[in-house]
User: Fold this.
Amino acid sequence: MRNTFLLLLLMGTIASYSQNNDNTMKNNVNKTDEQWKQELDSLSYDVLRGCGTEPPFTGKYVNHKDDGYYYCAGCGARLFSSEAKYDSYSGWPSFYDTTDTSRIIQVEDRSHGMVRTEIRCSNCGGHLGHLFNDGPKPTGMRYCVNSAALRFESH
Assistant:
């Protein structure tokens, strides 16, 4: 999966996708690499399109407490609610649930000598962060997300 994404990135076109009931993917957003570079700041581009990670405790939403929704910085899809945000002390914004699980794609990530679950926006394919099973109740999950992959709007 990751190699396919990188191949599309190198070809200059990112075909983004959403997860269907049968786990197949369909294109929702189709932009060239140059279009992404023009629309995103350099850190958001590195995170969303290049699977980068912002340094811990540096993102604008790590200690953010306002009520509202967090949207994908790449395409505007609503991903998380402030009601599900909590302080995981990990250095990145953390959520125990999504606003709609169909808006997040889970991909096995074997980079950096470990096996993790990468999370991507199902609408534009942008890398958001990783999912861990060490979160609080009621879900026990921790969606660990880069601030650079998010945009916030108050209720």
Summary: Residues 1-27 have pLDDT under 50 and may be disordered. The radius of gyration is 15 Å. The helical segments are 2-10, 33-39, 42-50. Residues 2-10 form the longest helix (9 residues).
